[in-house]
Design brief:
The complex is a heterodimer. Chain A is built from eight helices and eleven strands. By secondary structure, chain A is α/β, with parallel strands linked by helices. In chain A, the strands form three sheets. Chain A has a five-stranded parallel β-sheet with strand order 2-1-3-4-5, sandwiched between helices. A four-stranded antiparallel β-sheet of chain A has the order 6-7-8-9, covered by helices on one side. Chain A has a two-stranded antiparallel ribbon with strand order 10-11. The longest helix of chain A has 16 residues. In chain B, strand 1 and strand 2 form a beta hairpin. The radius of gyration of chain B is 54 Å and the shape is rod-shaped. The chains are: A alpha/beta, B alpha+beta.
Chain lengths: ~230, ~475
Amino acid sequence: MRVLLVEDEVRLAENVAAALRDGPGYAVDCAGDGKTGAQMASDPCYDLIVLDLMLPGMDGLTLLKRLRARGVGTPVLVLTARTETGSVAQLLNEGADDYLGKPFDLGELIARAKALIRRGKGAAHPTLYAGGIEVNTLEQSVRRGGARVDLSPMEYRILEYLIHRPRAVVSKRELLQHLYDYNWEHHSNVIEAHISNLRKKLDAASGVASIETLRGRGYRLLPEDTGGRV
Amino acid sequence: LRRHSITRRAVAIVLSIELVFAVASTALVYFYQRQLYFGALDISLRGHADSLMGTVVEAADDTDSVMMDVAGLTTPKEDLYEVWEGDNLLGRSGDLSRGDASLRRGADGFLRLRVGRRRYRVVRMHGLRVIDPAAVNVRHEVVVLYASPTEGVWRAVNQAVRFFAVGNAVILVLTGWLVLVLVRRSVAPLNELATDASTIAANSWRFVPSEGARSVEELEPLVGAMEDVVRRLEKSFAQQRVFVSDAAHELKTSVAVVKSSIQLLRMKERSGAEYQAGLERCQADCARMEELVQRMLLLATVEEGNAERESGEHCAVVSALREVMEELETVAQLHEVRLELLRRDGVEARAKISKEQWKTVCTELVLNAIQHSARDGVVMLEVSKGAGMVRLAVRNGGEGIPAEVLPYLFDRFYRGDPSRARSTGGTGLGLAICKAIVEQAGGRIGMGCEAEVEVSVEVPVDGVLPR
């Protein structure tokens, strides 16, 4: 998953970005002012936008309004020092999905970020099932047929992204854009290796193929019943 | 402090003036009436005495004496009279002189007399009866004493005075009541104004004086002053609110940085070196927060008090500036910037500002100039003297400032370019502090960027009145 963080306080941005990378393993891009943030936010590659309200250039609320006016539906988590009922209500009415009052708890920030991403992809429960695979996004653990599968962080992130979009074909480019930050192009040749490892680990346990490669189009999680024997 | 009521005071003043007039007019009436009634009494006394004098005629015998012929004479029953011819009593009604011979001696005129319990007014009249002037020519000196009781006259005078006094008293009471009502009615707009004013609160600054209060000419200055005060209070409250809100945002952000730094360290197991680096970052974050708090307090202190300005402190502008330049030399070297001082006409002026505050201003401005200066640049400090002012211009020839940003540069927490301000450790308070200090000292501060960025400060010269 890839997150855009719009925050002008450099140290806070560093800490939040580090927490999102270290915790749930998201790719994080930072914008230091409102105008840059607005430009970056309209890119559909982001699964979540974390937005500070007091920004130079363009304040967070204006940014939010423009984003929603342009039809960008990415979930937005607002960071604000003002938590009076009135301003919170205004934020939510303008299209924010959630807010956190400063100073916030990093654990809570991560939990809210996860929930917003999950909801943004139409899942209600933190544990996701598809093709006989069970992904617990809280523990970041994976099971197949009741047996635990140990994955590397990158493999887990690929699977987490795929399981949020069961039955859909996900292109290599989309995977790259959502799993890496602005440097994603440099990682294009390693993604295939990660997919291959992921497939091996998942299929070893049950002997049923889990991820289908559609040449030139991308990857897809196979439903359990259609999965052929390896 | 003695409280007093305008209403009571007005009523008392009007009533006492009226009382004085009432007493005076009553006294006047008393004297006038007495004059009038006693004048009439005197005329009647004289008339009666004349009539009595007329009754003295020659006696029918041959003694050439005189006698009284009272036939047809009528006098009021309560009146008394005596007619004497020398020591010879010719006739009387009642005992007027009761053997006091002195009463019939003396010139013509009026006397007061008490007979028994009654008071009388007496007229004494001398007359001469000459018997047969052609032959014997006997002269008889006749004295008539005629008295009327005065109680009736007094009664009439008193009645008139009483009528007047009662009338005055009634008018007095009526006026008192009327004045009370009128004063109360004319003071009513004051009460309305008080009611209007009592609705003003920190969250509701609407002050609309009622029609009644606005229509009173005398209340115009008060209404104007109140409107002015409310407007100024509202403005300063709004400013305070913005300041508190901005300050809260800055502080919360600062706390968020420190908190997240610590939480980040605890998120997973880390190596000793990582903990070390993390702790150092936490310490730096805390130091920044401390600086922010200190500067906010400094700004609040400067904006609050005129104390220093009135203490009459002053400082030598150039030597203080030299101290600041020495203190900042290392920072300048670090940024590879040169500091240069230019003194027009070799001024060494003393300014009306405390040395500490002047150095704060200089430090802020020079530091700012260094931080926004290009490498190998020069920060030029120019001191000159104007009309009653010492002027310091700080130029760094650095990057220009967008014109639309200029008016906000002295606002609290404003950062021209946030990424740079943050990275240079700015709190967005430095220029606001300078502005507050300079304005408290009665000076001016401004920024321009025509050829190059220039901040100019003017402070009043010591001994010369500002403005």
